Amino acid sequence: MIQDIFPSRLINSWQPASPAPESICMCFQDGRLLAAVKDGELHFPRYQSSSGKAVYLFSVDDEAFFLTEPEHVPDGFQYYSMRELRDQCAGKYLYAAFTAYHLHLWYDDNRYCGICRGEMQHDAGERALVCTGCGHKIYPRINPAVIVGVINRGRLLITRYRRGYAHNALVAGFTEIGETLEETVAREVMEETGVRVRNIRYYKSQPWGMAQDILMGFFCEADGGDTIRMDDNELKSACWCKPDEIELQPQQHSLTNEMMKLFRDTNGHLPAAVFRMQNSAQPQKTRIYFTRHGETTMNVADHISGVTDCALTENGIRQAEALAAVCAGHPEISLIVCSPLMRARRTAEIVAAQIHVPVVTDERLREWDYGSYEDQPRDATPDFQAAKREFGVRMKDGGESLLQLAHRVYSCIDDIRQQYAGMTVLCVCHGGVCRIAETYFKDMSTEAFSNFFMGNCELRQYEL
Ligand SMILES: [Zn+2]
Predict the structure, then answer these.
(1) Which of 174, 177, 161 is nearest to 208 (CA)?
(2) CA 119 to ligand 1 center in whole angstroms
(3) Predicted confidence (pLDDT) per residue in 120-134, tens digit
(4) pLDDT above 70 covers what percent of the chain?
């Protein structure tokens, strides 16, 4: 999400700071921000003595941001709308741009006092504007709004707005005077879609400066009928979608998209742990366990089993059951991410049946594709060990190189860290994948890497 800039941090406390030559200038004109976009990276002008009046906004890590008056446009810079930036950029500077925009609108809307029409000026001690005439003081306005994931029999209520954002969304709306957030959820779903809801559970929140909002995400269930009576004024479409029918937004910025993705990736079985998590400012520890599938017929025959499917032996099933018993002693495991290969899926199913958590399949956890070594007896392929050590060379006849394997396994772990931050996840996969995972978390010499061995259903734990 846009605010997930960890390990960077937006420090929002106000201070009576003056700009230094390297300070970042946030300069708006007609709601557009002066910036340069190069390869998706955002750049802002730096403060110069000619930049004029500057109001301190916030810092991102040790970089201070100031609101400045429109000035001449430096080479390579132009004014962008917030929507253009949203579509083209990501990262900490986009979050800074959204937050700066929120504050810019507030300062701009409040030049004069609403009581006596006197001129407003910045308070000396806090982020507030004070009237020079009557002393009336105001603070930044933040609009509370809800995002609602309505679930009915394994399907999610997906909408599209009639105006504005063109991609899939969830029911959303502002909290009105005199209502609780839960009442906002129930009212908005009823108004937009005619569906009654129950079991409303808070998920996460998101500051959304582009609309001066704080968004609060909730999941709930349809209560009674699932007939949709859509508000044509607000929405263009509203329908119940199965997990695999959900088309995500093109960017990962929004809470809405994260909620749709979570529902899709957990196949509609939201882990209970997601509702106990705090927001991302102070991320809780993410823990990942890795295990290798139980013994297979090909393990016993000592055949090379990369992406070739094979079944667990009876011994392999017993190993999986023993693993399940060990996992039952770790109630913090709230999700299994599993290789699509049969031996891993079967192992994961046995564990999941015991500890009652959802299983998500991730293609990137399948075993190394060994090309024409697949299903060969290990003792008949003396060059196989040497081929495994050539990390940049693809296994012959359409196989993968070790670097290709590492690339997909690393990217899978990156995604787990981000999507399931604060949770404990069990990855059920393969010996070759476990070995790559080990290098994600620890330094390994070439020798240690070559000698690494993961027994069937052995469990290794990593903290993030
Ligand atoms: Zn006043």
Answers:
(1) 174
(2) 7
(3) 999 999 999 999 999
(4) 98
Task: Name the band, by pLDDT with cuts 50, 70 and 90, for residue 186.
Answer: very high
* CA–centroid distance, residue 437 to ligand 1 (Å): 62
pLDDT in tens, 350-399: 999 998 888 999 999 999 999 999 999 988 888 998 898 899 999 989 99
Residue 279 confidence (pLDDT): 45
Q: Say which residue the tokens 């997906």 belong to.
A: 158
Q: Ligand 1 centre and the CA of 114: distance in Å?
A: 7
Q: 115: CA distance to ligand 1 center in Å?
A: 5
Cα 10 to middle of ligand 1, angstroms: 32
CA of 461 to the centre of ligand 1 (A): 61
Whose CA is closest to 33, among 88, 77, 89? 77
Q: How far is the CA of 215 from the centre of ligand 1 (A)?
A: 31
Question: How far, in Å, from the CA of 208 to the mean position of ligand 1?
Answer: 30
Question: Per-residue pLDDT tens for 409-424?
Answer: 999 999 998 888 888 9
Q: Which residue has the tokens 């050539």?
A: 390
User: Who contacts 276 (Cβ-Cβ below 8 Å, separation ≥6)?
Assistant: none
Instruction: Give distance in angstroms: CA of 53 to centre of ligand 1.
Output: 23
Q: How many CB atoms sit inside 10 A of residue 455's CB?
A: 12
pLDDT digits (tens, 9 = 90+) for 299-346: 999 999 999 999 999 999 999 999 999 998 888 888 999 999 999 999
Structure tokens at 307: 């992406």
How many CA within 13 A on the CB side of residue 50?
5
Output the CA 140–ligand 1 centroid distance in Å: 17
Is residue 426 within 8 Å of residue 271, measured between CB atoms?
A: no
Tokens 């407003």 label which residue?
Answer: 120
Q: How far apart, in Å, are the Cα atoms of 138 and each of 16, 110, 129, 130, 378?
A: 17, 9, 5, 7, 75
Strand partners, 381: none
Give the H or E element holding residue 184. helix 181-193
